[in-house]
């Protein structure tokens, strides 16, 4: 039996990176997965990978920053699999690096729209459905270690991730009576395709970053995915309102 055997849920931002790894891991642990993203090609590829491995998944295009898309996403999940037991709200983006005094309004609007309001809308409609089912549920949010520290040149992203952690705790408190657990993972530097391309292009900088990580390496998307699946499993049934730091010990220093 897998950690989430027979359960059905949603992964947003699942066309690649942490989201794809999460969708694959949920499926490998026995869950039915709704793969969601605005990148249709990437999302469909994630579904193909799950099906090829013997899992069960569908793709639903949804813009995380749209409340109506979030509502429709829940309806599609229930139509496909009959229920909603868990969710990984992972969709997110960053803005070009610049001091806060030079950041453009459009960048704040875009990042906060996806990274913060997208979580608001996802929580609203997913928790509502879980409460209606009457059997509880689990929601995990991709926050970031940038939601715990200051990061030069990343004001929109940092603002969103600090907000996400406050939102997570509030949602955990409010939804606990319905048996709905809400937690967050806080990835440190993770070797997604974009980060790996950066590391390959500036190996000396990448080596300097790795040198500051006590465990001596960047995280992998699978490191983050494993934690998300565990938090949504019955193994974590008494955990809610928690931010789980997955950074190889970087924040310790």
UniProtKB/TrEMBL annotation:
CDD domains membership: SDR_c
In terms of superkingdom, the source organism counts as Bacteria
Entry keywords, A to Z: Oxidoreductase
Q: Quote the SUPFAM superfamilies the UniProt record gives.
A: NAD(P)-binding Rossmann-fold domains (SSF51735)
- Record keyword Oxidoreductase present: yes
Q: Does the keyword Nuclease apply?
A: no
Entry similarity comment: Belongs to the short-chain dehydrogenases/reductases (SDR) family.
For this protein, the record's NCBIfam families field holds: PRK07231.1
This chain's protein is named Short chain dehydrogenase
């Amino acid at each position: 039996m897998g950690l989430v055997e027979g359960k059905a849920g949603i992964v947003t931002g699942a066309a690649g990176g942490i989201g794809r790894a999460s969708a694959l891991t949920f499926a490998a642990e026995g869950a039915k997965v709704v793969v969601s993203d605005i990148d249709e090609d990437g999302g469909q590829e994630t579904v193909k990978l799950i099906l090829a491995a013997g899992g069960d998944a569908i793709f639903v295009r949804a813009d995380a920053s749209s409340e109506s898309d979030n509502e429709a996403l829940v309806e599609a999940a229930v139509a496909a699999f009959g229920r909603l037991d868990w969710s990984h709200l992972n969709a997110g983006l960053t803005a070009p690096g610049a001091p806060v005094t030079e950041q453009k309004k459009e960048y704040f609007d875009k990042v906060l729209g996806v990274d913060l309001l997208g979580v608001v809308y996802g929580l609203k409609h997913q928790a509502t459905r879980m409460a209606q089912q009457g059997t509880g549920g689990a929601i995990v949010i991709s926050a970031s270690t940038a939601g715990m520290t200051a990061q030069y040149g990343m004001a929109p992203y940092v603002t969103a991730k600090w907000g996400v952690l406050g939102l997570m705790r509030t949602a955990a408190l409010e939804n606990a009576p319905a048996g709905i657990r809400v937690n967050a993972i806080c990835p440190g530097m993770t070797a997604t395709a974009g980060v790996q391309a950066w590391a390959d292009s500036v190996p000396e900088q990448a080596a300097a970053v790795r040198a500051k990580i006590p465990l001596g390496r960047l995280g992998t998307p699978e490191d983050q995915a494993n934690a998300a699946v565990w938090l949504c499993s019955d193994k974590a049934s008494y955990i809610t309102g928690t931010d789980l730091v997955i950074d190889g010990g970087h924040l310790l220093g």
